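Because showing beats explaining, we think one record worth quoting, sequence and backbone structure tokens together, and here it is:
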Amino acid sequence: MPLSHHHIRTTVDAYLARHPHEREQLGVLLDALDRTGEDIASRSTFTGHVTCSAIVVDQLGRVLHVLHLASGKVLAPGGHTEPTDDSLAAVALRELHEETGIPPRAVTAWPGYETVPLDIDIHDIDAHPSKGEPGHQHFDLRLLFRLHTSAEVPVVLQEDEVGGIEWRPVDRVTSPTLREKLLKLPLQVEPETANASALIHNDRGEYLLHLRDYFPGQIWEPGMWSLLGGGREPQDATLEHTLRRELAEEAGLDLTDLTPFGTEYATDDAGATVPIAIYAGRWNGDPRELHLTEGVMLAWFAPSDLHRLRIADTTSDLVRRHAARNPATQSGPEPEEEERLASPHGTVPNIIGVHLYLERPDGTVLLGLRHPNSAFAPSTWHVLAGHCEQENAIACLIREAQEEAGLQIERQDVELVHVVHHIGKPRNPPRMGLFFRARIWRGEPKLREPDKCLQWRFWDPTALPDDLVPYTRLALAKIQSGELYSETGWPA
């Protein structure tokens, strides 16, 4: 199944969420993606087309390079897409195998880069009249892998194209932009992602959930509603291959298109953090007609139904985030939120939001720039925040800090420093914003959810950004002056 335009676009968008400052320099690629009727994956599209490279790091931190005979340059293995490639990672892995003989099973995606390239490079290609090829550009998506075996990997060179290989230290990587990004990688990485799940939705805005068998101690999340998916096996070249195999084995499902949505983090029964690559796909079938080989049943649920299910908070939040970015195409208009919330007696429940006030010793405070597609305050700075689910406020704060920024906070190190009672718009339900200070924390802010936040930055509270959420600006000022409570948005 050839690469879809949507898959490429989604991958580039995820990359730009991490590197928004590169949007201008990738303008020609974005223009190509915006043109209709043009196959950007085809090597015969001479306005510019996609190539993929495999950036492979070994156990000693060295990066694989090959000597390309045609150009005489020492580069990472890579090349053009083929009609048989079903993902960008598959292109890179195929080229790696063809050029060096290193099999896909010998490498694994670098944690945090399972669905997002490490680097995107645009470079000119000279004309080749003998091949009938005019000068054009390559849009090279560079996927990051690591050699996950300490054993010697046999190398079989593609002799007509490759003159040799070399493992180079990071500071000798040939590409300056690639070298810069590799030098910023942490030496100690998180557990590798070996699991993949499918966020399957239909045109009515419903999501396909799987009721797991109730076998406590034998399976993960027994008796709970979850997403279809499973763990990587040796024959799986990529995590998308893992997911397609699991969908076929568990339910006989074969989806036309699966696109990366992000990486989620769950906790297993032993308390370890388990990264899960999430792929989204659309399907409008009847789950009762599927042949289910594991679990109890499959069923469609709207996001508004999730509160009555036995479902993990992380799964519920994932579905709601996807639904907010992908409205249904067939369902009618939702009732006003305050109409859904109002009780028969006229009282209105207040939504509880939890906010992290993180201040460094130099007095600067942490803010995040929200994604342009965010349902709330797009392209606006805000503190790290989230909504309470089936949990207390401090538990929510600790969870959100870990999920959104990789920060470790302990309950005993948290104190309430401000409460703001606010209404964003006249018809919006009222909200109670709880601001907690973390006196001590571990870690530096990382982009764990690039679909939510584009960057983290510490700001001088006397020089905050202009595009700051208004109630956040008010709360920060009150915290600085030592005031515990404020109100905003209420009618005079």
User: Anything to note?
Assistant: DSSP finds nine helices and 23 strands in the chain. The chain has a mean pLDDT of 84.
